[in-house]
Amino acid sequence: MQAPTDLAHLTDFFDRYGTALTSGDVAGVAGCYALPGMVVSDTYSFTFASPAAVALSFLGAAPAYREQHIVAAHAQLRDVQRLSTALAMVAVEWEYLDSLGNAVPGECYRYLIRTDASGPRITTVIATHGN
After folding, report:
1. pTM of this prediction?
2. Fewer CB within 10 A of the end CB, N or C, for the chain?
3. How far is CA 81 from the centre of its chain?
């Protein structure tokens, strides 16, 4: 893990990212990514080189959350590995809250984060299915 200030910055960052995801703020989601960016899972990978491409790839997220009655997302930071001054690999388990106030289990991801003067940004997302 990192110093408390690093964890606080990452927690704030993932709070903003989760809010943008569940509210349909695709511009906010796009602002959380360094470019070019990449998403990797067991069955597919894709890259994006512009904020518009990021926004397009997340257009369906908010309606999917609404369909499941998800109103909030909370990132539980499970591990932070500092790779360099600017890079960190962050293991996140997402927990969702539905419209009745119930916790809904979420997905697990590893995020390669690059931090610069403007703050942390996601460079790569890897779906890990709880690993």
Report:
1. 0.88
2. C
3. 16
